[in-house]
Write a structure and sequence with these properties.
Layout (H helix, E strand, L loop, with lengths): L1 H13 L1 H24 L7 H23 L2 H26 L11 H6 L10 H25 L5 H24 L14 H8 L1 H13 L10 H6 L15 E7 L19 H5 L3 E5 L7 H10 L11 H4 L8 H7 L3 E6 L8 H8 L3 E3 L18 H12 L7 E6 L27 H26 L5 E7 L15 H7 L1 E8 L10 E3 L3 H9 L5 H12 L2 E2 L4 E3 L5 E3 L7 H15 L15
């Protein structure tokens, strides 16, 4: 035993310089890790085990750089600088979007930059903490530089060290992330991103998101195109009146009812017109505080994002010959028009809209000089509706489908001077009161513009049905409540919808619907012919009107269950997800009649 201890001491003394250098490198990884967690607003960190997992994950990145350059001080800088920038960017992303930066945001960078000037970037303890850890990492880097400056390396020693690092990092990554039974669970995202990121750490959770993005669309259990082709549901289409009224969809940016989330009193009604309508309700959307493109995708395609939880659809999916309500109505002879008063590059809408089936698309430059609410930089709802009506009157005699994604209510909500607010909260929300007043004023303006739009069509000679639905809650909503509560989780992801028509429409809906159900519900209310896909969705809606992208469902009796639960509703849900997968992922074996009007 004594000889063994002596040999250990001799080994440590002989390699003292290299061991200390390695410890400095680990210290650098630790400082970078703490910066990442502060950027994720996670001051409590992740517990002992996952703290080490995340530190070693960062160290693996540094080891990769070290193998290339054979200098730890270079790896400390090469990894530390971009990850510190990522930490700060992530903090402000959480502040305004309430979801962390992930690999999918690489595609969305242009969208983020286009609205950057409307936000403020306050310094606080989190940002200052990130800067402090970066400064400490620079100090460690200087020590590494001093230790390695005069160090001479033989090719043999460098090769052995590199091989050891490759083996260690390979074993670590495989066992923790990539094995069949990884140490870190592979699918931890259910209904709350905080639950995963705060438990497992930003670095570890980011690897999970990256893994999911490589396998973008989950295959439903037991799916085969042959079984779907022979299922009776894939051949059944509900009979309708066969009407073809003009249809207008409005996805209203950050149109959200604060009354669903908090007790709030205001000096004037927030949405008096929509509150007066009969066919209104609440829509469960995919995200909160952001995720417009996810709501847009579920609205236009009726495909639930549960099979695609880690992606921004327009940036990742293949939309060649895509099935959507746009392409569906084109098959029924509709002329189609889609618009968004922002840059065409945002979420690649300029590419995707035509592939969805729009005959005509309009973006920022096509709207000309815009009207705005006081100092806010975005076009008003009233203004974009005016442009829509101009084009509506020139679309010819065919039935018309129009889609408008508004932008008036986009964050932030601390832009206008207080005297510009038309709605004021009588409830004190502390530092968020001013933001809430500006937000409520925007929502009130949306209500007024929607009323004007319906008045335009009230006496119109053509039959018109209009559906307006909100895309997500404002980013500050989560700061007002305990987001860990399950009911609050749904409330944060629930936006208003309203359906209006200038013809008799005796139609009732569940009080709460998921976004994918909106399109088939509007088509049914309008009396438009239905495909087997829409028919199956309406059948499923009778019992389970809420299916979410975060793997929770609600029955018509407001009972909440998980997909894994063995319920009486599972068969219809399984058929629906088989259809979604066939529509999105199985292009070579897509069963087109499922998504086409019955002839």
């Amino acid at each position: 035993m004594r000889n063994f201890v002596e040999k250990i001491k001799e080994f440590l003394l002989r390699h003292k310089h290299g061991i200390i250098t390695l410890l400095y490198a680990l210290l650098s990884s630790t400082l970078i890790y703490y910066g990442l967690e502060l950027g994720n607003k996670n001051a409590l960190l992740n517990g002992v085990f996952y703290t080490f997992v995340n530190i070693l994950t960062v160290f693996t990145l540094q080891a990769a750089v070290f193998i290339l350059f054979q200098r730890w001080w270079i790896s400390a800088l090469a990894v530390g600088i971009p990850l510190t920038a990522l930490s700060i960017a992530n903090y402000y992303t959480l502040l305004y979007r309430n979801s962390p930066i992930s690999t999918q945001d690489i595609h969305n960078a242009g969208t983020a930059l286009s609205v950057l000037d409307s936000y403020q970037f306050p310094l606080n303890v989190f940002v200052l903490g990130i800067v402090l850890f970066f400064a400490l990492n620079i100090a460690v880097t200087i020590q590494l530089y001093k230790r390695e400056k005069k160090q001479k390396r033989s090719f043999k020693k460098s090769a052995i060290q590199s091989i050891c690092l490759v083996l260690f990092c390979g074993i670590f990554l495989h066992s923790v992330y990539f094995s069949d039974n990884p140490i870190k669970p592979r699918n931890t995202f259910v209904w709350s991103w905080e639950d995963s990121y705060y438990r497992y750490g930003y670095a570890a959770s980011s690897i999970e998101v990256f893994q999911n993005s490589l396998n973008m669309i989950n295959t439903p259990d037991g799916y085969t195109p042959e079984a779907l082709d022979t299922a009776k549901e894939s051949r059944t289409a509900r009979k309708t009146a066969g009407n073809t009224p003009d249809i207008i969809f409005i996805l209203n940016e950050t149109f959200y009812d604060m009354r669903d989330l908090v007790d709030i009193e205001t000096d004037v009604p927030i949405t008096p017109f929509i509150d007066s309508l009969k066919t209104t309700g609440k829509t469960v959307v995919a995200g909160t505080g952001g995720g417009t493109n996810k709501s847009e995708y579920e609205l236009l395609t009726s495909n639930s994002l549960q099979l695609m939880p880690a992606i921004t659809p327009f940036n990742y999916l293949n939309f060649d010959n895509a099935n959507s309500i746009v392409s569906y109505l084109k098959q029924l002879g509709y002329k189609t028009w889609g618009a968004h008063c922002a840059e065409a590059l945002n979420y690649e809408r300029g590419i995707v809209y035509p592939k969805l089936g729009f005959d005509q698309v309009l973006f920022d430059v096509d709207f000309g000089e815009k009207e705005r609410l006081a100092d806010r930089p975005y076009a008003t709802d009233e203004f974009v509706y005016g442009k829509m009506l101009e084009d509506y009157e020139g679309m010819g005699d065919a039935p018309r489908f129009m889609y408008m994604l508004t932008i008036q209510n986009h964050g932030g909500w601390d832009i206008n001077p207080p005297e510009s607010d038309t709605v004021h909260s009588l409830t004190d929300f502390g530092e968020y009161t001013d933001d809430i007043n500006e937000f409520l004023s925007c929502v009130n303006e949306s209500d007024r513009a929607f009323r004007q739009l319906t008045e335009y069509f009230t006496s119109h000679e053509r039959d018109v049905i209009i559906c307006m639905v909100g895309d997500h809650a404002p980013s500050f909503a989560t700061a007002l409540v305990d987001a860990s509560n399950l009911d609050v989780t749904f409330n944060l992801r629930t936006t208003p919808f309203a359906i209006w028509a200038n013809f008799d429409m005796e139609y009732s809906l569940p009080r709460e619907l998921s976004m994918p159900f909106i399109a088939p519900s509007v088509l049914e209310a309008a009396g438009v012919p239905l495909s087997p896909y829409y028919t199956q969705m309406l059948k499923m809606r009778q019992e389970t009107p809420v299916i979410t992208a975060f793997n929770l469902y609600k029955t018509k009796n407001n009972e909440i269950f998980n997909y894994a639960d063995n319920t009486e509703y599972k068969h219809d849900i399984d058929i629906y997800f088989d259809m979604v997968y066939n529509n999105v992922a199985d292009n070579k074996k897509r069963i087109d009649r499922i998504f086409a009007p019955v002839q």
